[in-house]
Write a structure and sequence with these properties.
This protein is mainly β. It has one domain (2-141): Immunoglobulin-like. It contains 1 helix and 11 strands. It has one helix at residues 125-128; strands at 2-3, 7-11, 29-40, 43-53, 60-69, 74-81, 90-98, 105-118, 121-122, 130-134, 139-141. The chain is elongated.
């Protein structure tokens, strides 16, 4: 099942500065942070901040993400579409998971890249250079 952003990505006016404790690698990367998780209208709304530090324009970017419940059992397999990620650009996207309370999710696993296009061709850079972080109680990683 593919999940499109509940609200299209919002560009931030300034780059997001992260502290050393929650910071991302300085080497070329595609940094995605789970910034917030909140319950809204019978859904868990996940807010992500993505920064393309790879040095390469990403035409299309989406990830296969799997949820885990609080007991560690695998839940839903979802596709989160981040879309176009220009070099150096910070983008905020949000996804609503209908019928799911945020408290029932203990972990989000980036299982694989669903789509990664550079100059019209499939690329593995989206998974090879991916770094993750979280500011929520939900674990988020590879």
């Amino acid at each position: 099942m593919a999940w499109r952003p509940a609200a299209r990505g919002v560009a931030l006016a300034a780059a997001v500065g992260l502290s050393a404790t929650g910071g991302w690698a300085q080497e070329p990367s595609i940094a995605i942070e789970l910034n917030d998780a909140s319950n809204v209208e019978n859904a868990c709304r996940l807010v992500f901040v993505a920064v393309n530090k790879s040095g390469v324009l990403l035409d299309k970017t989406s990830y296969d993400v799997v949820t885990f419940d609080t007991g560690g059992k695998v839940g839903k397999s979802l596709t989160f579409q981040f879309g176009r990620l220009p070099v150096g650009k910070t983008k905020v996207v949000q996804f609503d998971l209908p019928g799911q309370a945020c408290e029932t999710i203990s972990r989000l696993l980036v299982n694989d890249v669903s789509e990664c296009s550079v100059e019209g061709k499939r690329s593995e850079i989206c998974i090879d250079k991916l770094t993750t972080a979280t500011r929520t109680k939900i674990e988020f990683g590879l």
